[in-house]
Design brief:
- The complex is a heterodimer of chains A (236) and B (292).
- Chain A is an alpha/beta fold.
- Chain A contains ten helices and ten strands.
- With 292 residues, chain B is mostly helical.
- Chain B has a domain at 18-216.
- In chain B, α9 (220-233) crosses α10 and α10 crosses α11 (264-278).
- The chains are: A alpha/beta (236), B mainly alpha (292).
Chain lengths: 236, 292
């Protein structure tokens, strides 16, 4: 079967800094794939490139059989891509409900009410706080809101950038439980994490990035057992 | 009675400032830039409506609509040609460009309409007599206040209730995240300029109806004052622009009446300085610390 997302030899630059050096990977329907690596390895840059916030100078990004090319970010959403960005970036001055409505920006208004209901079922905490501004939520709640907001667009591929960042261990566990349940419900997920342990334990497959290159790949279990992972985290 | 009449003229002037300030504040909120050419759009709106009514003999309502159309197009074109290429440039470059656009518009007007002042025909004349003629309120003052209130309510409803308005607020908070929602940020910024410029055209017509001398520099002082009003009320805030504009108009009218006509402008700006010393974000503005 064709992979849902195929990233082939992308090279991304920030001015003269070569951040991503020929990265290739694939995500199949229904999988959780994780990109792990140390700070500055290029994980977020890769996600931002897939989402269209950044563009590659070479290679191609094929999503559902279509080359995304230099499609601007705001058009990739209606293709079925959704990115929950690093640091959550919810709209702090807007209410919880308005944040979720923004997530459905590309959708016709008729289905929004049902989708809101669905997200509130998934995250009951958000329902309790639907009228509050997002700025008054705790970090964990903001992460839930960011994920709920992304789900409002019915993504065919959900990309999560460091969903556990800055959260207490108990909340990290909650977030990963949610990722597991989304996976069970059939959502395809591309997950970027520094918390390799947690990420690999939920992932079907993983890619290890180091200074802009894929250095190794394998199933979640294989990578968990591999000494290379430790090496990557020691900056090897 | 005298006091009341000064107060009313202040509220009317303040309403014009408020309408202009709304344009400043919306553009600042979304594009994070000070569009110093905004005042000159007012002047263009004044001239277009003047030409439509005096040269083409069109009814004033048609003149106003024509002025709004021309200014909307002008605003969007200016944004597309002058500001959009500078989206990633430092804010100082954008600021200088805006000042350049301002001078460009003034000089273009000088070429087209010459430096000689035109006498604007108010869109409505006459006044309402109260207390047996002791208090006269010009109809144009009443119209100005009503139009300002309508615009204020409509804009608030638009930004809080409509999908496009919410997208504008999302863009003003975080353009990157807004793009991730599928919002076209460039189109949203153009839309903001369009709304701001249409409002400037209305302000131009109302301003010239109250102060009927039209020159290429007509827009610059009210533009600066409205910018002051926007900062005074808290730039980026729609109710702030309204409150700031109104207060500024009243202070100016009172200063002119009871202190000195010559010192009125100085007093207005002195009040701004004092307010900013006490409340750096303006009356209704939020102080947002830069996150590291």
């Amino acid at each position: 079967m064709e992979p849902i997302l195929k990233v082939d030899n992308i090279n991304v630059y920030y001015g003269s800094i070569h951040a991503i050096k020929g990265v290739s990977f694939e995500v199949n329907q229904g999988e959780i794939v994780t990109l792990i690596g140390a700070n500055g390895a290029g994980k977020s840059t890769t996600l931002n490139t897939v989402a269209g916030l950044l563009h590659s100078k070479t290679g191609s990004i094929t999503f559902l059989g279509e080359n995304l090319g230099h499609l601007p970010c705001h058009k990739t959403v209606s293709k079925g891509l959704a990115l929950v960005p690093e640091g959550r970036r919810v709209f702090l001055q807007m209410s919880v409900q308005e944040n979720l409505e923004m997530g459905a920006y590309t959708k016709p208004g008729s289905g929004v009410a049902a989708d809101l209901e669905h997200v509130y079922e998934l995250f009951p905490r958000l329902k309790e706080r639907m009228r509050q501004t997002a700025g008054t939520l705790s970090g964990g709640e903001q992460q839930m809101l960011a994920m709920g907001r992304a789900l409002m667009s019915h993504p065919k591929l959900l990309m999560l950038d460091e969903p556990s960042m800055g959260l207490a261990p108990i909340l990290v566990e909650q977030i990963f439980d949610i990722i597991r349940s989304l996976h069970k419900a059939g959502t395809t997920i591309l997950l970027v994490e520094q918390n390799a342990q947690a990420a690999l334990s939920v992932a079907d497959r993983g890619y290890v990035l180091e200074t802009g290159k894929v250095v190794t790949t394998g199933t979640g279990a294989e990578l968990l057992a591999s000494p290379i992972i430790k090496k990557a985290y020691l900056g090897g | 009675m005298e006091f009341l009449s000064y107060l009313i003229s202040g509220i009317s002037l303040g309403s014009v400032y408020a309408i202009i300030a709304l344009g400043y504040t919306m553009v600042y909120g979304i594009a994070k830039m000070l569009n110093f050419a905004h005042g000159d759009i007012i002047m263009v709106g004044g001239y277009i409506s003047f030409c439509a009514m005096n040269y083409l003999g069109l009814p004033s309502i048609v003149g106003i609509i024509l002025a709004m159309l021309v200014c909307t197009v002008l605003g969007v074109v200016i944004e597309g040609l002058a500001y959009k290429p500078l989206r990633a440039a430092p804010s100082l470059a954008v600021l200088i460009t805006a000042i350049g656009v301002s001078y460009f518009l003034q000089n273009a007007a000088l070429l087209v309409w010459s430096a000689a002042p035109k006498v604007y025909t108010p869109i409505i004349s006459g006044s309402l007599s109260l207390f047996g003629g002791a208090l006269k309120i010009p109809y144009v003052s009443i119209l100005t206040v009503v139009v300002c209130l309508v615009i204020m309510v409509a804009l608030t409803a638009f930004t809080n209730m409509s999908k496009m308005g919410k997208a504008m607020r999302a863009c003003s908070e975080d353009k990157g995240a807004a793009q991730l929602m599928g919002i076209n940020v460039n189109a949203t910024i153009s839309m903001t300029f369009a709304i701001g410029s249409a409002l400037a055209a209305i302000a131009g017509v109302l301003l010239c109806s109250s102060y009927p001398t039209l020159m290429p520099t007509t827009g610059s002082m009210p533009g600066i004052k409205a910018f002051t009003a926007a900062v005074f009320g808290g730039i980026g805030s729609i109710p702030g622009a309204f409150l700031g504009g109104l207060l500024l108009g009243i202070i100016e009218a009172m200063a002119k009446a009871y202190i000195s006509t010559n010192l009125a402008n100085s007093i207005v700006f002195a009040v701004l300085i004092v307010v900013l010393l006490v409340k750096p974000a303006g009356l209704l503005g939020r102080y947002v610390p830069e996150k590291v």
